[in-house]
Task: inverse folding
């Protein structure tokens, strides 16, 4: 079954606002990753946070991980129209025996 | 939706050899992608393979090392050529049916190069 579940499913905001996406998962993980997908393009990796990390930053992105609640959040600050895309979380419970499990994705629309 | 199968599911290979990975989809799709996930790392897009055109490779990936075939709308192959231990990865194909902005992934091919 699907491991990661993004929340909300869709979000529409104005340029300059912050966007927060949440991801919940069910089982133990080695790391959690966030990806972006622009229409008609492949997935682009945004950020990876390991199970022993609680927060990570990359440019305008901030990711938190709460392993006790089995949840993660992705914050995009000062959003731009170019941030319009679908965003996915994915959990990695292992490598050789487990596959990367993706959530259903969340559609973010940033209006200019 | 789309159901995707990959062969082989896993393999252990000697350096210098080549392995061809097959990806079969249960429906006709235009867009197909190949990804690599190295141990403990994130997914990295290798190339986009659309039927009827040459595959488009991402930066850092070249056709000589990862030749791709896309003979029809339900099938594709990725070859990992002249393998080295650094090629040990999970290789995944995915498809995007229509323009739904949702990708469906195959189960992956786990490759270990000794």
Result:
């Amino acid at each position: 079954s699907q491991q990661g579940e993004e929340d909300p499913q869709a979000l529409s905001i104005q340029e300059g606002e912050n966007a927060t996406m949440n991801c919940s998962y069910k089982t133990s993980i080695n790391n959690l990753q966030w990806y972006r997908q622009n229409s008609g393009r492949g997935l682009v990796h945004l950020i990876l946070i390991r199970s022993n990390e609680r927060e990570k930053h990359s440019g305008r992105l901030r990711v938190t991980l709460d392993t006790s609640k089995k949840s993660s959040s992705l914050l995009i600050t000062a959003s731009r129209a170019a941030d319009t895309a679908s965003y996915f979380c994915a959990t990695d419970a292992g490598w050789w025996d487990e596959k990367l499990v993706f959530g259903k994705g969340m559609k973010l629309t940033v209006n200019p | 939706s789309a159901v995707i199968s990959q062969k082989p599911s896993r393999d252990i290979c000697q350096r210098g050899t080549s392995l061809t990975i097959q990806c079969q989809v249960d429906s006709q799709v235009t867009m197909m992608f190949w990804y690599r996930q190295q141990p403990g790392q994130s997914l990295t897009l290798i190339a986009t393979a659309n039927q009827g055109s040459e595959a488009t490779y991402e930066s850092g990936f070249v056709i000589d090392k990862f030749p791709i075939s896309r003979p029809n709308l339900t099938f594709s192959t990725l070859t990992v050529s002249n393998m080295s231990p650094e090629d040990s990865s999970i290789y995944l194909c995915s498809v995007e049916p229509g323009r739904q902005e949702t990708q469906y992934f195959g189960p992956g091919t786990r490759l270990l190069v000794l």
The radius of gyration of chain B is 13 Å. Chain B has a mean pLDDT of 90.
